[in-house]
Amino acid sequence: MRITGKTEVYGIFGFPVKHSLSPLMQTAAFRALGIDAVYVPFEVSPENLDKAVEGLKAMNIKGVNVTVPLKERIIPYLDSIDKTAEFMGAANTVKNIDGKLYGYNTDGDGFVDSLIEEGIEVRDRKVLIIGAGGSAKAIAYALLKSGVNRIVIANRTIEKAESLADKLKGIGDVNTVSLLNINSVIDKFDILINTTSVGMEEDDPFLFDYNHIKSYMVVVDIIYKPFETKLLKVAKSKGAKTINGLGMLIHQGARAFKIWTGKEAPVEVMRKVLLEGLK
Ligand code: ATR
After folding, report:
1. Are the beta carbons of 224 and 278 closer than 8 angstroms?
2. Which CATH number fits domain 108-244: 3.30.1380.10, 3.40.50.12780, 3.40.1280.10, 3.40.50.720?
3. Which residue among 6, 18, 57, 71 is the active-site one?
4. pLDDT confidence of 102, banded at 50, 70, 90?
5. 124 pLDDT above the threshold of 90
6. Is 131 annotated among the ligand-binding residues?
7. Can you tell me which atom of ligand 1 is nearest the CA of 205?
8. What percent of the chain lies above the pLDDT cut of 70?
9. Is 192 exposed, middle or buried (0-12, 13-18, 19+ CB in 10 A)?
10. With a cut of 0.90, is the ipTM above it?
11. Hey, whose CA ends up nearest to atom 22 of ligand 1?
12. How many whole angstroms from 84 Cα to the centroid of ligand 1?
């Protein structure tokens, strides 16, 4: 591609940021649609976030994604945030319009998009979410808005699950269970979602006894590296439908792209470069 004086700059703020696949995916998307823009990684430590935000405005960077550990920290710098970012207390997408910064959080809706893309109807399904961190919060909120009937949050630290459930209770029917007790209740759920990092490493423990997974279930792991975690491998062997985290990565990015450009993101182009990038 040709970078000229007119080329617009987008990027991602993160610390670390070297592992991020967003530059690959967003650059491919700009190119596919013939948009004169680049998307680059910015390694921004939490101490330097204030200077980075000033720099973004000073240099007229048009938009950024924000990742760990800055999603919450970026909020005070934003002039306006959407309802989801407000509920989350965290933003993953910032749009700069004439020096005013607008914040969004596309993680949860991106997750739901990735289920829809796989033909999963979430309305009125019973969902078990494992984990009670930021990813679980985003996913639970988006699922409730999409018509999910009932969510149970399972977590190692039950207090964290309860605190998250309390925040969600005004929106839908949300309960909790200790991770230690989920084996006996698992067959009550249609959709199981792992939002923890357990499964990223080869020697990670099992979250529960995966032999309890049934063929009628949809089992989702937001991990995409490895491409198929132990959880998904066993689920597949039980005849369950399995979905990894690549779709969530793509669709949170696709929503950011739409916020910045007003255009539908070329999702298949993004998937293709990510699949190559993950090889
Ligand atoms: P994220 O923003 O990606 O959700 P996070 O906020 O750090 O990350 O949340 C991590 C989640 O993974 C938590 O629910 C955590 O459980 P605890 O609340 O008990 O810490 C869960 N988690 C991490 N390592 C785990 C492990 N080895 N076993 C079970 N749960 C684990």
Report:
1. yes
2. 3.40.50.720
3. 71
4. very high
5. no
6. yes
7. 27
8. 100
9. buried
10. yes
11. 196
12. 21
From edge to edge, which strands make up the β-sheet containing 150-155? 173-178, 150-155, 126-130, 191-194, 218-221, 241-243
Cα 3 to the chain's mean position, in Å?
A: 30
Is residue 49 scored above 90 in pLDDT?
yes
- pLDDT, tens only, 126-170: 999 999 999 999 999 999 999 998 999 999 999 999 999 999 999
Ligand 1 contact, 196 CB (< 6 A): yes
CB of 199 closer than 6 angstroms to any ligand 1 atom: no
239 is in an annotated binding site: no
71 belongs to the catalytic site: yes
Q: Where are the domains of the chain?
A: 8-105+252-277, 108-244
**pLDDT tens, 143-153?**
999 999 899 99
Is 136 a pocket residue for ligand 1 (Cβ < 6 Å)?
yes
Which atom of ligand 1 is least distant from the CA of 204? 27
DSSP alpha helix (H) spans, 94-157: 107-117, 134-145
**Ligand 1 pocket test, candidate residues 141, 196, 225, most atoms within 8 A of CB:** 196
- Are the C-beta atoms of residues 64 and 79 closer than 8 Å to each other? no
CA of 71 to the centre of ligand 1 (A): 17
Residue 1: is its pLDDT beyond 80? no
Task: Supply the DSSP string of 69-89, one letter for each residue.
Answer: TSTTTTGGG-SEE-HHHHHHT
**Domain spanning 8-105+252-277, CATH architecture:** 3-Layer(aba) Sandwich (3.40)
Annotated binding-site residue? 178? no
